[in-house]
Amino acid sequence: MAAPKAKETPAVDTRPLPEGGVWITAARRAAQARLAETGLPQRRDEYWKFTRPDELIDPKPPRAALFRGDVPEVFGTVDRLRLVFVDGVFDREASDDLALEWVRIERLSDVSAQDIHWARDLYGTLEARGQNPVPRPLAALNTAQAREGVLIHVTGRAPRPIHLVYVHESEVSDAMLHHCIRLEEGAELTLFETGPAAARFNKVMEVDLAARATFHHLRIQGPDHERRAITHIFARLAQEAVFKTFTLTVNGVLTRNECVIEMAGDDASAHVAGAAIGGGNFHHDDTVFITHDALRGESRQVFKKVLSNGATGVFQGKILVKPDAQKTDGYQISQSLLLDEDSQFLAKPELEIHADDVACSHGSTSGAIDEDALYYLRSRGIPEPIATDLLVISFLAEAVAEIADERLREEIIGHFEAWLERRHG
Amino acid sequence: MAAVDEVQIREGVDQDTVETVRQVGSAYKHGWETEIEMDFAPMGLDEEIVRLISAKNEEPEWMTEWRLGAYRRWLQMKEPDWAMVHYPKIDFQKQYYYARPKSMEVKPKSLDEVDPKLLATYEKLGIPLREQMILAGVEGAEDAPAEGRKVAVDAVFDSVSVGTTFQAELKRAGVIFCSISEAIREHPELVKKYLGSVVPVSDNFYATLNSAVFSDGSFVYVPPGVRCPMELSTYFRINAENTGQFERTLIIADKGAYVSYLEGCTAPQRDTSQLHAAVVELVALEDAEIKYSTVQNWYPGDEEGRGGIYNFVTKRADCRGDRSKVMWTQVETGSAVTWKYPSCILRGDESQGEFYSIAITNNYQQADTGTKMVHLGRNTRSRIVSKGISAGHAQNTYRGLVSMHPKAKNSRNYTQCDSLLIGDKCGAHTVPYIEVRNNSSRVEHEATTSKVDDDQLFYCRARGMDEEEAVALVVNGFCREVLQALPMEFAMEAQQLVAISLEGSVG
User: Fold this and answer.
1) Residue at A3 is within a domain
2) Exposure on the CB side of residue A150, measured as CA atoms within 13 A
3) Across-strand partners of A21?
4) Beta-bridge mates of residue B340
5) What is the model's pLDDT at position B493?
6) Tens of pLDDT along A12-52?
7) Is A322 exposed, middle or buried (0-12, 13-18, 19+ CB in 10 A)?
8) Mutation site for A-interface testing, chosen from B79, B422, B434 by largest number of A Cβ within 10 Å
9) What distance in Å separates residue B444's CA from the closest CA in chain A?
């Protein structure tokens, strides 16, 4: 249970910083200093107890074979604005025109030479705030080193969702993206992120929501199996802001998704949900940290994992309620379904509560398919593989229910079915 | 307590209730100190002190070496800092590691020879006279007639065990119940076999320190097939100032044996903090069962957070045999800082571990407590019920581990952690670790945090209770599942403690 905090030799990234204008250079330098202080994550760090960071900090990314199989178009039924990144590099040809009413979309690489930009107040700011009380060195590394990303400024209701498409074409790519998203008062935006991105992917997304802004985020990672990814979402919610994110992860030898949310304004609401399915050397880690620092905040964490054939699922979720965050409503559930003997589930669902008038709860369960439910289905003439699939899908349903749009829910369930089909071979 | 007088004049309240509330008093009731001449070892810690403690206990050479080995390991270890507790750095050289009442040097022959202050101490603590005689070390006191229900007591006053009751009767049943120093002399084969086999010498900083300097403690051996004829109990009292208490308890239940063991502790009220670092090892062989209950009521410090005991305890049970069972029950109301995780290693197939805990922190108390259930054997089962109550400026953390190893097929765990907050300056935290490495096992964990329910309070108030009584009643209801797991005598004491510990937390 106890892991010493002290590190003998903190590993530090020694690469020179990218060239840039005044504001971004200042932000990169500050991030570099944060990283120098904490060092890169190590196996002995308490926060990395269940996930080995070795392959994420290795100077060279391990080779990752490309997925050979049909990948249907994702979110094809939705009219959206697409931005395509191939192994972390923006593909202008494949992307749509960056014009959208109420929304200003820019590329980080285009504005980083400027000496002044709205993103100055956001780039690296939420990441820096998210370094306390637990350091997140790979996010600081990203702030210091990322050259590409999208800056989205929304002042009204975005007419179409924005879709970031991550294409993986090189077996040795090492991509880093840093996105900044700012929604002004009452603004609304839906963001999709899909695709395997790169052999190794480090992504940071900072989301700043002004009062009554609404942000929906839907992400699909995979299906390439041999990829490694570390992603961070840092979000700050002002009064009555709404933040909803759902991530589906299919396959991947190493994925760690961190989500750090600050409930800064009263009556804000944040829902973080995820479904992960994988087998073999699949390792999936969801690490969530929600800080309630205002009145009547509502937060929900719903995470489901289906693991087979030696896969590992990790969940580290924390709700921190600060002394004056009265009337907080915090809920957290993490569940895993282990389809065979060798798979494992490691969890640390944490509550830290300093206000008395709150209702916080968390639950965590792990186990095999319910024999009684299986028997019930089989006794009604459903063959075992189909009965198992039905139970797997129903297990994942609670997480999928977090997605507001019904069409998108259907599409996500389609991905489950595709994975189950591949599993049966 | 003004409330008591009001209660008295109310109709329909029975006299017992009034008495109970009165007894409970308004502050820590064990906060007095006995002025008694003590024999101290020099302050500080080095190899010489370790040798001296060993010599005072007339220990054999192997034991002295065992202690020295632990001491050398300890020098290389770092104090753990991962718990959610904050306290000034402890100067381990500013402590006495050995203190015993002078009068214990030669065993007194009758009550008249006993230092009356020692007797008065036990009387004040509410231990019956006959037990007092024995605890004071009077020879032959065992044959005096006993009243009521029998509980054998081993009392530890600062560093030494001052007496163990009912030894003869236990002996007839084949049960060995004595101080650990006596066990080292009289039953070296058992001690050698089991001491350090559950909590290894180098287990953690405080356990290693304890291994080097433990001065006394209790030893229990229940032979195969024997159901211990009475409850066994140890009473710990820290009296002397600046004295660390390091007791060591070793309980072995051989095949098919059963024993229930109670532990209680108090200390005087002082402005300076005192260190208590105990190690408890339980070994349950095939079909054996051990129940271990603790009411921990060390001095918690005053309302401003001055003084109090630092309670850094390592307790672990090894369910070594198949179908063995260990049940930990704890009521933690005392201590300024608590750091304690009674655990079960479920090694035997079908073995069972249970942990029931109430941890109450008030004023500036801090508690970081919980359990570890390590499932190694097949079909093993564990159950954790933890109730944390935090009031005033206190911080209360549940920290636990449930681990299912790949070979622990078909195992089962159920964990429930509930926290209650009283007041807006306190904190309640839950830090569970769950590691499931096979799929035939089921693990369930639930935790909630809330404040005292307004409706329940209103209901009680509407029936004429004052706010403090109402809170005590609601809290007792909240703790019910754990209180029920305690032996009868302890359950009564614990219920009262719940009420006292929360005093001054409302209004």
Assistant:
1) no
2) 29
3) none
4) B313, B369
5) 73
6) 677 889 999 999 999 999 999 999 999 999 989 999 999 99
7) middle
8) B434
9) 4
Contact by Cβ (8 Å): A181, A191: yes
What interface predicted TM-score (ipTM) does this complex get?
0.87
Q: Which site among B426, B439, B445, B448 would you substitute to test the A interface, given the most A Cβ atoms closer than 10 Å to its Cβ?
A: B439
> Which pLDDT score is estimated for B116?
67
pLDDT value of residue B3: 37
Q: Is the separation of the CB atoms in A337 and A306 below 8 Å?
A: yes
For the cut 50, the answer to whether the pLDDT of residue A212 exceeds it is: yes
Token pair, residue A232, equals 């961070």
Measured on CA atoms in the order B477, B483, B484, B487, is the torsion positive or negative? negative
DSSP string, B399-447: EEEEEE-TT-TT-EEEEEEEEEEESSS-EEEEEEEEEE--SS-EEEEEE
Average pLDDT, chain A: 92
In this structure, are residues B202 and B191 in contact, taking their beta carbons and an 8 Å threshold?
no
pLDDT of residue B110: 52
- pLDDT at residue A283, as a whole number: 97
Q: Residue B356 in 3-state DSSP?
A: strand
CB atoms < 10 A from the CB of B11, how many? 4
Q: Is A353 in Cβ contact with B419 (below 8 Å)?
A: yes
Q: Which residues of chain B have pLDDT under 50?
A: 1-26, 129, 140-149, 507
* Structure tokens given for B376: 């190694």
pLDDT at B270: 64
What is the arithmetic mean of pLDDT over A396-409? Answer: 91
Cβ proximity of B209 and B277 under 8 Å = yes
Span A72-101, mean pLDDT? 93
A5: pLDDT confidence band, cut at 50, 70 and 90? very low
pLDDT of residue A331: 95
A114 occurs within a structural domain: yes
Residue B118, pLDDT score: 63
**Residues written for chain B:** 507
Average pLDDT for A143-155: 97
- The whole-angstrom separation of Cα A41 and Cα A232 is 14
Contact A360 B451 (CB under 8 A): no
Query: Residue B142's pLDDT is what?
Result: 47
Residue A131: give the domain boundaries: 22-369
Residue pair B427/A354 in contact (Cβ under 8 Å)? The answer is yes
The tens digit of pLDDT for each residue in B388-422 reads 999 989 999 999 999 999 999 999 999 999 999 98
Asked if residue A17 is part of any domain, the answer here is: no
Give a yes or no: residue A210 inside a domain: yes
Long-range contacts of A128-131 (CB under 8 A, 24+ apart): A128/A30, A128/A31, A128/A34, A129/A234, A129/A236, A129/A262, A130/A232, A130/A234, A130/A260, A130/A262, A130/A289, A131/A34, A131/A38
Token pair 């910083």 is at which residue?
A17
Q: How far is B229 from chain A (nearest CA, A)?
A: 38
Residues of B in contact with A346 (CB under 8 A): 434-436
Domain count, chain A: 1
Angstrom distance (rounded) from CA B367 to CA B370:
10
Looking at this protein, which amino acid is placed at residue B440? S
pLDDT mean over A260-280:
96
The Cα A377–Cα A381 span in angstroms is 7
Amino acid at the residue A233:
I
Q: What percent of chain A has pLDDT over 70?
A: 97
Task: Judge whether B424 is closer than 8 Å to chain A, CB to CB.
Answer: yes
Give, in order, the Cα–Cα distances in Å from B468 to each of A20, A286, B9, B474.
64, 43, 18, 10
Question: How does DSSP classify residue B376?
Answer: -
Q: Which class for A70: exposed (0-12), middle (13-18), buried (19 or more C-beta within 10 A)?
A: exposed
